[in-house]
Amino acid sequence: MATFLLHRLALALPTLFFVSVLVFGLQQLLPGDAALALAGEERDPAVVAFLRHKYHLDEPLPVRYVLWLKGVLAGDLGESIRIKRPVRDLILEKLPVTAELAVLAILIALSIGLPMGILAAVKNDSAVDYAATMTALWGRSIPNFWLGILLILLFSVEWGLLPASGFVSPAESLSRNLATLIMPAFVLGNALAAVLMRHTRSAMLEVLSADYVRTARAKGLSEAQVVLHHALRNALVPVITLGALEFGELLSGAVLTEQVFTIPGFGKLIVDAVFNRDYAVVQGVVLCTALAFILLNLVADFAYALVNPRLRG
Amino acid sequence: MINRETLIAACLFGSTLIAGAAAAQTLRIGLAEDPDVLDPTLSRTFVSGVVRTALCDKLFDIGLELEIVPQLATEWAWTDDKKGLVINLRPGVKFHDGEPFDAAAVKYSIERHLKTPGSTRKSDISAISGIEIIDDHTAKLVLSAPFAPLLAQLAGPAGTIISPKAAQAAGENFGSHPVCAGPFKFVERVAQDRIVVERFADYWDKDKIKLDRIVYLPVPDSTVRLANLQSGGLDFTQVAATDIDTVRHDPHLRLAAVNGIGYSGITINVVNGERSKSPLGRDARVRQALELSIDREALNQVVFNGENQPGNQWVSPTNPYYVKELPIPAREIAKAKALLAAAAVPNPVITMTATNNPVVLQTAQVIQAMAKESGFDIRIQATEFASALQLAAKGDFEAFMLGWTGRIDPDGNIYNLVTCNSPFNDGHYCNTEVDRELNAARAVDARVERLAHYRIVAQHILQDLPIIYLYHAKWLYAASAKLSGFTPYPDGLIRPQGLRLE
């Protein structure tokens, strides 16, 4: 197992390198630069030139990449040109917010998607199945930002039950923290639940028609035991893969949702950074996200082994 | 149904606690974006200025009619040759760190604005060649040449005085914990989330400060900002013209508005590179035809519900420096067609660049439709903001829908935008007579004399039309009915003096 882990981690390094080169290169294709974006309407040439020099924007691309890489290897991700704070601090500040939102969203998604998927498979081709499929279609097709604004109008403006936007840290007040996160987590979880439901349903349908399930039934086991104990475990493998990938996506920042609910997480950080051409921030966030994806894939591999002993090799 | 029940239960739980946690004298102000660095020497954004208004007093401020009023200064006098400004400073003023405010602090702050690498204030006050300390409470600014807009510049960010001790200790990081002499002191900042300031007990004008704390919350989406105001998550915010009806019909909200000092217009590339060779760039008659095609009042009604001020000069028609002899021209399609015929381009094809903001694009579309009647074929090119800035600087545009946030002194709305070789003159317009008159207007102090020079400038600009001015936006604010004492100022900054939550 240790060899497997080391092997996977070693593979991660070239991936991270490739991602960082790609993002660094792609950013440079954007017209405009941080110095101009920062200068805004008063583009004093002296100030623009100073900023370009200070942040090495006047150096050739490979030189800038090497400078950045040197910093990263020394644990320095650079500085935000706009608010003059170390990127590392910004990431450490935003990561817990996004992680909490992602965990809540995935919990909501699982608690809706899994039972609905199982139910739809067990009651295949019944009214329950159609209702679940319709709900999933609704969840997937409704745009996040629109659902977000509708929820704000209903729960905040109309009923005054929840804060419309913003974030309170759990250290300050856990209840207010949950009150600020419940709507964005629901918006994200709702869309994700639909995908999980569809995958659970199809995986379950496949497994439920397998021979060993027929054997289990023939042994006289109750339907609940057959479904939950025998069928679900096998059906979960593709669902876990999907869940891990979707969780990684959530960690990379739910751009629109964070924007609508003004949640100061990764999504808002990266959107603002792209618009302001705050390259160091974009680069730092992407690196961090890529790392999260790689780690989550590893976690998914371990999870397969847990739910399906045949994969423990 | 599980999800709905869970959600409602969670909501009920959350709301009980939110209600209990509301603080009485904390004002929550919604900002349209997260401010950049809060250092007065380096900051760029308007929203940063909004926060700094609570933190930092300036030597001067403006009144409701844009007149200059003393703030940290008490009196001032120009020397006879107009190359020296003697400023008497307010005694008994303290910075947030307890240090005294004096002439040495003024010298330090102004020199910092002038000498810090990357200072965005330097160009505002580059006329200052030295600062003399006459005594503890008197400073003299020495100018290289007379510069009438100086007082107005010192009523802006360049007049911000900071604590020298704190600034020296913090060095480059001063912006992450600014120490000034304003009514509130800095408490904390969480990037993209909030900036918190609290009342400064030793403020020189503390009787006017009723609030204990102000929390600035950046909420970029205007719909969400308004929703926050309606649900009580914010007490005060700037609103879009399109949201005014909602505010007016909500009994819990109050609307405040004031004419702004900026303008919106179409900048035309007249000689900056290849793209200036469009029909618009080549011939002033085509530009005049475009102007005559536009009904500015209709534009204001259609896009802004009639809330803004139509205009045809760099200052609004209600500004004392507006040249009244040259009013907004009426729409005249026949005359526009005649001008196009005379220029031998009856159907000019023009690409107009516009930032991809819904209001700017709508304005561009209305102009496109209006100009079509005269024979113009305008193609709108929507561009994201940072890219637009680069296109403008490079001269990669024919016509550009651009705004200017505005300066207190009329010089700030025109000089750097039309004089030959100046940094923000994107179309590279150059008219030596305009330059001469604008320089002359800088050297005289009396309004009548300056207006005489601006009259000549306006005659040239409205003939040559390097910029077709369209309208002057109003500052629109919505506040909770619990908030009283708010006075909107033409510079759009939110002054905390007098604000009170009932």
Description:
The complex is a heterodimer of chains A (313) and B (502). With 313 residues, chain A is an all-alpha fold. Helix content of chain A is 77%, strand content 0%. Chain A has helices at residues 2-29, 34-39, 45-54, 61-73, 87-122, 127-141, 144-158, 174-208, 211-218, 223-251, 255-261, 266-275, 279-307. The longest helix of chain A is centred in the middle third of the chain and has 36 residues, at 87-122. Chain A is globular and about 85 Å long. Chain A starts with a helix and ends in a 6-residue tail after the last helix. Chain B has a 7-stranded mixed β-sheet, sandwiched between helices. The two termini of chain B are 42 Å apart. Chains A and B meet through helix 2, helix 3, helix 5, helix 7 and helix 8 of A and helix 1, helix 6 and helix 13 of B.
Uncertain runs of chain B with pLDDT below 50, 5 residues or more? Answer: 1-23
- Label the structural class of chain B: alpha+beta
Assess the beta-strand content of chain A as a share of residues: under 5%
Percentage of residues assigned to helices of chain B: 25-40%
- Total E-strand runs of chain A: 0
How is the largest sheet of chain B built, in terms of strand order? 8-9-10-1-11-19-12
Describe the SSE topology:
The complex is a heterodimer of chains A (313) and B (502).
Chain A: H1 2-29, H2 34-39, H3 45-54, H4 61-73, H5 87-122, H6 127-141, H7 144-158, H8 174-208, H9 211-218, H10 223-251, H11 255-261, H12 266-275, H13 279-307
Helix pairs in contact in A: 1-13, 5-6, 5-8, 5-10, 5-13, 6-8, 7-8, 7-11, 8-10, 9-10, 10-13, 11-12, 12-13
Chain B: H1 2-21, E1 26-31, H2 46-55, E2 60-62, E3 68-70, E4 73-78, E5 84-89, H3 103-115, E6 128-135, E7 138-143, H4 150-154, H5 164-170, E8 184-190, E9 194-199, E10 213-218, H6 222-231, E11 236-238, H7 244-248, E12 253-259, E13 263-268, H8 279-282, H9 284-293, H10 296-304, E14 309-310, H11 333-342, E15 349-355, H12 358-372, E16 377-383, H13 385-394, E17 399-404, H14 411-418, H15 432-443, H16 447-464, E18 467-472, E19 474-480, E20 483-484, E21 500-501
Parallel strand pairs in B: 1-10, 1-11, 15-16, 15-17
Antiparallel strand pairs in B: 2-3, 4-5, 5-7, 6-7, 8-9, 9-10, 11-19, 12-19, 13-17, 13-18, 14-18, 20-21
Helix pairs in contact in B: 9-11, 10-12, 14-15, 15-16
